[in-house]
Amino acid sequence: MEFTPLPDGMAKLSIILPAIDARQAYDILTCDARSLPKDDRTTDQKRADAFLDRFLGYGVDRKVKVHVTISLETLMGLTEDPGLLDGYGPIAADSARELAMHGPWRGLLLDEYRRASELSRDQYRPTADIKQFAELNAGGVCSAPGCTTPIQELDHTTPWPQGKTNATQLKGYCAHHHHLKHGDYTATLDEDGTLHWRTPLGRHYTTHPHQY
Fold it and tell me: What pLDDT is recorded for position 153?
């Protein structure tokens, strides 16, 4: 843990934890932040306030789900391939197995390209299953080029109802890149899930569904 003084009477408190513990703490603080009244504070500012409340003993007991994707072979101990911690990335097989043992399991079918299959519905808002599939499709991180921030918001690549509500059309973004997508940036989608980004200056970038 480090304490760093900042100007204007502020300071930064940073802490390094095991990825699973850090993800769980982040998700709890996110739940706390969402329960606070709507005001001018950003979600990150509310997370900071929620952290201080919890540190001072005012937090509410919450349970959050930390998702890990692990192959059946690794789960059975036949291989030592890493698991995928939602919003973080690869973790050691032993850690992934231990986390998997503490919660319910769900099967994930992959296509011939080892990408998550999809579900669909004829409404704007996705079901919890579709949200989870969309996040799995992206590996739990923002779909913008080069961004590794955990998914915060889902968005139809092609505006609904022309764009279907399914795991291919729905892409997960951090709040910053979601805002850019609806600004001067454009995003288009190939049938295989490849996402094409064009900047206001005409530069072209691509991202692909996560390969398990």
Answer: 87
Of 133, 74, 130, nearest to 99 by C-alpha is 74
Per DSSP, the residues of 112-148 read TTS-B---EESSSSPPHHHHHHHHHHTTTB--STT--
Do 181 and 173 meet the contact criterion of CB atoms below 8 Å apart?
yes
Say which DSSP state 25 is in.
Answer: H
Closest CA to 174 of 197, 202, 146: 146
The pLDDT tens digits for 14-29 are 999 999 999 999 999 9
The DSSP bridge partners found for residue 171 are 155
Cα 166 to chain center, whole Å? 17
Whole-number Cα distances in Å, 111 to 46, 89, 136, 139, 172: 40, 21, 13, 15, 20
Residue type, 95: S
Residue with tokens 């101990």: 77
CB 85 within 8 A of CB 91: yes
Q: Which helix (H) or strand (E) holds 205?
A: strand 204-207
Residues in the chain with pLDDT values less than 70: 106-126
Nearest to 145 by CA among 115, 117, 185, 113: 185
> Has this prediction a pTM greater than 0.90?
no
Burial of 130 (0-12, 13-18, 19+ CB in 10 A): buried
How far apart are alpha carbons 92 and 83 in whole angstroms? 6
